[in-house]
Amino acid sequence: MQSSNLVHVIDDDDAVRQSLAFLLQTARIGVRTYESAAAFLAALPGVDPGCIVTDVRMPGMSGIDLLRRLKELKTAMPVIVITGHGDIQLAVEAMKIGAVDFIEKPFDDEVLLAAVKAALGQWEKSVWKEAERARLAERLAALSNREREVLEGLVAGKPNKMIAFDLGISPRTIEIYRAHVMTKMNAESLSDLVRMALLSGVLKASDE
Fold this sequence. Notes:
Elements: E1 6-10, H1 14-26, E2 30-34, H2 37-43, E3 51-55, H3 63-72, E4 79-83, H4 88-97, E5 101-104, H5 109-141, H6 145-155, H7 160-167, H8 171-185, H9 190-200
Parallel strand pairs: 1-2, 1-3, 3-4, 4-5
């Protein structure tokens, strides 16, 4: 999985960009800076993943406009907006559109760093989940129809005998299928198998 330890800073103020870049680099966090939302969007197809820190008030495309555009583009990177004092209404609007946090100017360095680290952690987790879902989808596709039926019985909490009765085959045969399912899914235990089923969507979290 590609590292997401990178922050894209968007601000029309040179001093703010330089200050944020220095702060993030001091915390050993990678940083790229852009003088406008348009400049970031132009670079977006080729940028490495991470999180975005953008000023909400900028000439041309504002931070709010940028959030709307990122939503249209289905860009999953978390966005933190920087707002001026008294811009709470804009901050709330940004959160409604999809920003994960907002920081008021003048901001405390530690507050900003904590917000950035939280956003990077959220991105890392979401990327890991997508990669894991892709791996699980491949494993599920390798199961036979009967193995899939046994899997669904197992993750529903049914004992071998009940699954055997439901499928009209012997409990001993269920044990063989169960072993095949555990091997193909690379599951170390039944709880591991249930976790995989939840993540892949075979079992919904609300199911009883």
